[in-house]
From TrEMBL:
Residues 455-478 are annotated as: Disordered. Its EC number is 3.1.1.3. It is found in: Secreted. Coiled coil: none annotated. Gene3D superfamilies: 1.10.260.130, alpha/beta hydrolase. Its main location: secreted. This is triacylglycerol lipase. Keywords: Hydrolase, Lipid degradation, Lipid metabolism, Secreted, Signal. GO terms for cellular component: extracellular region. The keyword Secreted applies. GO terms for biological process: lipid catabolic process. It comes from Jaminaea rosea.
Length: 496
């Protein structure tokens, strides 16, 4: 009953709050504000341009670095933060410069050095939306609000525990959203960079990501054995995980969140030149203009959601069934994590994982996650799989936070409960304030209560609003207003 009522509270609040613009806006969390002197949009910041001899570096080697003041600056246990460019690799095995943000705690946890690799969901295809830029305190990236709604829990919790944090720009220099191999390699090289630079030998690494961040994280787990077996991953947590790009495209196409499908298509094309040529060979001029709009500076998650809603991409090509074409199928079979479709051998990581998914997820298909877990379990994996019975995609992001943080803590302590693969010990009662406080401390727990009780504001941060029936999220009618409804919430989350 308790479990049921907490989830109901979360869903019932949907629809009740579409807040008008706040009188006291925190300007730096909103866009259309001048940025303070210092860093600038990655589109014009030379830090993001790889040197011509990038291939002379070893994977994970740091090419350059610079100190930053991050949005997590008020964390009392944060010592300093900095950005690095490290050598990484794209899907075609070419050397690229990857960027990551590194946060170093003051008081370091006892025992083996512990590292959280936090993957933010960028869900867009413009460098302006790179996490490294969204986590700069003075940034005016339009991604900043969305990037800082769940991150304060994971990142500030980890820093308070004395864990190191690395936040990769997993999409890389070509904005390769949903291109799994590029994302996974950049994550693994970001971890190599922090281990090398901070001299964290014999460390323990755990990964977290939700949604677009989960897609990146699951690919890092997939590529770990082949690409970076020496990276000491002890476990991973991801939720709302996209598993199969073809199903994702069909699921989203023409619907409220078709923007993510368009961004995913552009991101995947960035790593599959043959697919890109195929698409452009059949794209109408209107289709080409549409895709061009998505890659403009500061077209980030909120803009992707609101400007590309209800788009039927298949109307913009002059062939029928383009996905059945052998060129499309070749890419789709390389980019899927479904065993029944993949053209390569999917690995089965042995480290423990928590994977969760909202049953009513309207953005990422639930059934593909479930199938992935089934396949992994059949191969001998160690996975807790949690179904959030009453959540949709964004409330699922919020509802998963205490459970995910709890599991990450258990991983680092080596105390995560062993369950039969694919099952779960039970739902975390997120309404139980003392239980949440036991996981993340009383300060973060009271901040969590604000997030839990204001789902419409959480949706607002993503450029969304509650749907008419209150059961799911919808693209915001007014992006600026939706975002401004969330500013004071996010500002409060970051202040410690
Ligand atoms: C950010 O600030 C810069 C410099 O003041 C300005 O050129 C740019 O348009 C701003 N971007 C946004 C999205 O407000
Ligand atoms: C790459 O080139 C720069 C500038 O010439 C040089 O300082 C650096 O040592 C080179 N890196 C490697 C790994 O060769
Ligand atoms: C499809 O569109 C492309 C690009 O606009 C054009 O070059 C091509 O001739 C068209 N093909 C057909 C069969 O209409
Ligand atoms: C999941 O559902 C979608 C339709 O919503 C379907 O296309 C896909 O085949 C299903 N996936 C699995 C693994 O059954």
């Amino acid at each position: 009953m308790k479990l049921l009522s907490h989830s109901l509270a979360l869903t019932a609040t949907l629809g009740s709050l579409l807040v008008n613009a706040y009188p006291l806006l925190q300007p730096r969390l909103l866009s259309a504000q001048p940025v303070a002197a210092g860093f600038s949009d990655p589109n014009s910041d030379p830090f993001y341009a790889a040197p011509s001899n990038i291939s002379a570096y070893k994977k994970g080697d740091i090419v350059r670095s610079r100190a930053t003041t991050s949005t997590f600056k008020d964390n009392k246990n944060l010592d300093h933060s900095y950005q690095v460019m490290m050598r990484s690799e794209n899907t075609q095995n070419q050397a690229i410069g990857g960027v990551a943000t590194i946060l170093v705690p003051k008081k370091i946890a006892d025992g083996a050095p512990k590292i959280l690799s936090y993957q933010n969901f960028e869900d867009a295809v413009s460098l302006s939306c790179s996490p490294s830029w969204a986590y700069v305190d003075t940034s005016n990236s339009t991604a900043k609000l969305a990037a800082n709604i769940e991150a304060p829990f994971y990142v500030n919790w980890a820093i308070e525990q004395g864990y190191y944090v690395v936040i990769p720009d997993q999409e890389g220099p070509a904005n390769s959203f949903i291109a799994g191999r590029t994302e996974g390699k950049i994550i693994l090289d970001g971890i190599r960079a922090i281990i090398g630079n901070e001299k964290l030998q014999n460390s323990q690494v755990a990964l977290f990501g939700y949604s677009g961040g989960a897609h990146a994280a699951v690919w890092a787990t997939e590529l770990h054995e082949e690409y970076a077996p020496e990276v000491p991953i002890i476990g991973a947590v991801h939720g709302g995980t996209p598993i199969d790009p073809e199903h994702l495209l069909n699921f989203l196409n023409g619907g409220a969140f078709s923007g993510f499908a368009g961004a995913g298509l552009i991101g995947v094309m960035s790593q599959h030149p043959d697919l890109k040529k195929f698409v452009y060979d059949h794209l109408t001029p209107e289709g080409a203009a549409l895709l061009e709009k998505a890659v403009q500076p500061n077209v980030c998650i909120g803009e992707i959601v609101t400007q590309f809603a209800f788009v039927d991409y298949f109307k913009y090509v002059n062939i029928s069934n383009p996905l059945q074409d052998p060129i499309a199928q070749k890419t789709l079979k390389e980019e899927t994590l479904l065993k029944s479709k993949a053209s390569y051998q999917i690995s089965v990581p042995k480290f423990p994982r928590l994977i969760y998914h909202a049953l009513g997820d309207e953005v990422v298909p639930f059934n593909d996650s479930q199938q992935y877990v089934k396949d992994q379990c059949a191969g001998g994996a160690n996975i807790q799989f949690v179904t959030l019975p009453l959540a949709e995609h964004v409330t699922g992001e919020a509802e998963g936070i205490p459970m995910a943080v709890d599991y990450l803590g258990q991983l680092f302590k080596g105390t995560q409960p062993k369950v039969a693969c694919g099952t779960a010990p039970g739902l975390f009662n997120t309404g139980d304030q003392s239980k949440v406080a036991a996981v993340m401390g009383s300060d973060l727990a009271s901040k969590y209560a604000q997030v839990r009780n204001q789902p419409a504001k959480v949706q607002g941060a993503h450029g969304m609003q509650p749907s008419k029936d209150g059961k799911s999220a919808a693209p915001a009618n007014n992006l600026a207003q939706a975002k401004s409804s969330a500013v004071s919430l996010v500002q409060g989350l970051l202040g410690l």
